[in-house]
From TrEMBL:
Protein name (database record): Uncharacterized protein
Superkingdom classification of source: Bacteria
Length: 50
């Protein structure tokens, strides 16, 4: 039988007290994952005009 490969299923997003975006995900096997994105004080993104 082959090795297990984690498939990360999104469980939602949240924002920390420090303003970081936190992505929550899990695998069907029960493993959980958290990824933190730091905005580094940058300004908001603006959509480009076509």
């Amino acid at each position: 039988m082959g090795d297990h490969v984690h498939v990360r299923l999104s469980q939602g997003l949240s924002v920390s007290d420090e303003g970081e975006l936190i992505e929550h995900s899990r695998c069907r096997c029960g493993a959980t994952f958290t990824k933190v994105f730091n905005a580094d004080g940058g300004g908001p993104e603006r959509p480009s005009r076509s």
